[in-house]
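Researcher: Here's the sequence for the chain we discussed earlier.
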Amino acid sequence: QEKPSRLSAALFGEDCEISHEQVYELLKYAALGKSHNATQPSWCHIYHQSHLAGVVVIVLHEMSQLHFYKFYLQFKHLRRVFRHRFILPPSSANFLANLYGSEANLNPQNTARDSTSTSSQCATNSSDLQRDPIIQKYGEEKRGLTRYTLTLEELKKNDYPMKGSRGCEGYMYTECDQQRTDSSPLFGLDCEMCLTAKGNEVTRVSLVDAQGRCLLSELVKPESPVVNYRTRFSGITRKLLLPVKTKLADIQTRLKRMLPHDAVLVGHSLNADLQALQMIHPSVIDTSLLFARNEGRRFKLKFLAKAVLGKEIQCEQKIGHDPTEDARAALELAQFFIEQGPAKVAELNLEMLLTTERLTEMSPNKSALQLQQNTVQRGQNGPPQLSRSCFLDCLQKTGQKPLLLGRQEPDSSGMCQGNLSSSNKQILQQALKDVPLSTFSIVQFSLDPEHVAPHLLARIGEKVRIKLTDMLTIYAGPFDESFCLKTVKKEFGRCGPIQSLTVLTETYQPYVCIQYEVLEAAQLAVESLNGAEVAGSCIKVQRPVTGTMLDCDVLIKELELDIENEGVIYVAGLKKSLTETDLQEEFSQLKDLQALFLPRDLQSGKHRNCCFLKFLKSESAVDALQVINQWAVTGSRLRSRKALAPGHLQRWIWQMEHSNKKQRGDILSVEKEQESNFEQELRKKLKKLDQRIRKLYRRLQNNTLCVVLFPGVN
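Model: Thanks. This is the structure I predict for it:
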């Protein structure tokens, strides 16, 4: 029996943006397989590519994520059938050319073919490097180490212990106040902690010098009784700590004595180590922030050591992490960054390597995908290189004629062309006839010009923002006149991160208006606290009653059924001090747990008090919900429910909520009747478009890869 082809994507949570280059990788490998030097995409894996019957790309010109979520209920087929959904960066004039790797092929003026034609070899997009967060943060020029030490503002933002800060009373100051220069000595520091009745306490400390020599490696007796040794990560056991006499104060004194007055400490998320050590040091390089990522996300030390240094650390065969090994790895990473400079580091393309590594872990045949192999060839003096030969040329050489249908100018590539005056209906009729016979097809649907007028789209955007705000908002009350606001905030905070809380005094008795940061939190508050007793009052919890919210319950139900949320649950009420490692340990007993995503505040970069758990099977997700909710009955702070919004939607909601207020004010006013008619007509057209995609999809052969693109207009 023929094995079915399938696509596996390793992106989860906020790691859900893919570039045009990555779409090109997918299409090239799907169309050509291992012939013509095509390799598996770096960010996903196609199983049994040789059994693919064909590839179909449906391009919805002028349409974007805004259209998809504004008219979410109308896109019934798309949201129920297409399992994987990713963000694309802004479109460009040569969008289609980028899709299959040729800028020349769709240029109507490029009719002459000669030996210098670029149709079979495409230049790498040089602007990719400029968009890299490392380049945006540090520039391309190589600098000394003082450029990479954290500023006072960065220390404060990332919870580093500082003189005069709340909670740092009694902390020991290293008194390393001498002016730092680019020749100041670097020291790597790492600690392992156990969970005690007091919280996280240091149980092992390591310090290495700039040559990697271990200066200190010491076990430490915690002050309070140990609740969880976290042996899997810390390597600490009860037996190991029994004979230890060294106390935290002893370690503080030794560290202070060992560090010269211009010392620069290096570590990975060093704030946690210094907090546990209860020490304040003014000059640090934090490798979790040095190797910058977008929107506050961070690379793990284990990944950076492998990808940048080629070193394996924190191996599964060992019990617990070795703090000396981790301190040395962080130090060497900082030294590599300083010596090579930001441009060389950005050229490593760490985001691509990360998705490759994740996929390697997911793949049933790990040898098929090895980090830094197949998809990426690392040059001595340049960035990873990807083959950019136009795969459509290769297809034609093998006798396969790609099909292009839609409103595009004719080109010289030999592709079949649609009529410029074709309507979406005519394009569909042609596609139903020709696409099943072609191995590679691009089908383009478009909106009429009047439906993409900027001022009308701006109004739709504002409406979506208002609706999202209303969905994130709940009203609770009535409360007694003397109610405790702190108690209310604490109770509602257990449902998820709160963006704002306001007391309403216009009513006879006080009410509170709470705006959450995630949809699941607001829904959890409505489901679990409506009719509950909070701050001594039996309260009602409800969302705002507005015209846009009349279909809110329907929308929530459909978001729950969205195929992308299958097997994903939301958990709230987490302690903010818990790390991803802590949570993996806490949820390790849950069956079939595949991935854990701990969202960060996109402005501050700090962890929120909630997470998302993804399971291999939807039944396991249902079981996990029951287990976690049973914990709540027995006194746990945790609350959970099915997920409503995938990672890319969470990020988009945040962007909509924090969009430029001036820009909102500049939106042109539109006559209400004209606006209503426009929206009603657009709703019908998009519903019809969804039905057309459904018809075409049903006509495809089994084992056909189908990709739908919303390129947008800006």
